[in-house]
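User: Can you fold this complex?
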Amino acid sequence: MKSSFCVKAQVFYSLLTGAAFLMSTSSAWSASCCGGGGAATLVLPKFFDSMYDVSVGYEQYHGFWSQDGEHLDDPPGSDLNQFRITPGYAKRINDNWQASIVMPYVWNDNQYAGLSSNTNGLGDATLGFWYENFDDIKCVYAVNSIEDLTPAAYFGASLTVPTGVSPYDDVENSFDITGRGFYRLDANMLLDKTVFPWGLSLSLSYGMYLERDVNQEYGKYVEPYRRKLGNRASGSLGFSYSKTLEELDTLTYTLTYAALKEDAATINGSIDSTSGFDTQSVSIAVAYSTMAKDWIVRAAFNHLPTNDGLGSNFPVTDTITIGVSYVIP
Amino acid sequence: MSFLKSLLFISLILLSACADVLDDINPSGSDKRGDFDSSTIGSHPGETAADFSVFDTLNNTFVMSSELVGADAIVVYFTMWCPICDSHMTHMRANIIPDYPNVKFYFIDYVSGLVSVARASQLDNGYGSSTVLVDDSNHTVTDLYDATMGTTIVIDRNTIVQMNEDYKDGSKLKDILDALP
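Assistant: Here's the predicted assembly.
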């Protein structure tokens, strides 16, 4: 029975690491003014065949960091919100490979002093593949040898597909935007080490957007040009603690720090100095799993601090996410 | 394989319901701008600009045709005080405005609807020294020029629209101002 705790812990940490990974990379330009609503990849726990996942997110805006890193408030009377529902599915391909898809649906709900707007649409979808560089559970109860420190390592790639509504679609204005309009390839890595009941996880990601043609902006045709968003790097570090309940259900608490930086975009090969951004966030999450490990319910709160200098050219938000995963052995 | 088939099927269903996104899935680089000339009043480059009147944040009346008198052109940037807007406006102030002393530059707040609210945003965002116009609560000017966040319009001394598109990196604006008649 004791060993099952460890198995469950690693399942949990995989899911939570995935959730943290989602948080660390998903909200780039999710401001209602600027589209967004993209998602990242799911992580299917080792030895499981498939997983259905759905999360509901509510993001509220609290101003933004200017390009100089100064925090500025939204206009007086503003109430800017974004809601997202993100269904996903992950499937094991073989013992070490898995694939997944997530496709968010986004609602923008904005109130300014003289303007209100409610729009919705698909966000940008993400296809993901992971390779698990381990063959057995890496969770241990005590560290007795150097091998016991070996983490569970996942290496993967993901493709963001511009299924959302971007400024380059036939849209009326910026409030209709739910995506960025570019394909992006990411190389991803997750490291997860569990010494029950404690866990430590690290996720790193590096992404490159594909250059594209643009011949319209907000529904108006313009002189065609080529645009490419800047490369982006992101990472998160999470600490977890698991508590086994009387009925052998499990609660896991996670604290995660995440950072994201995107370089300046280019227009016809020239740097667009008004673009690019960076941001930092912290999140706390709690997850509950049944003894059978088939249902996992999680809730998370992601916070971007309003302090000057902790981000640039990026909206400051708080996000509450509630998610449910159903894992099939 | 069944997973990939399901994935493809679901994707096609979703995408077929959203024709808009196909512009992003398969972007086009063809020039689809129409031909417009000064014989019509409108917002497209080449057309005669529609005159408009608004207040600025100091409650002064701004009439477009009057402002053009004695100037090479006027430039109006549509702001909602967002991160992108701030980047554009900062860039414009630092890199464009000083080079064109005979061009009048304005930022127009199209979301506040009230002079007092627009003034507060102007000051909060550090644009107290700039002239900020306020579109009314009916969004008259925004609709007149089919504008949105980041839209930059240039109207020359002959009241011809020379530019009406997103600011981006400012290079297009600079090219337009360099080539003013």
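Chain A has one domain: 2-292+302-328. The CA atoms of residues 29 and 325 of chain A lie 26 Å apart.
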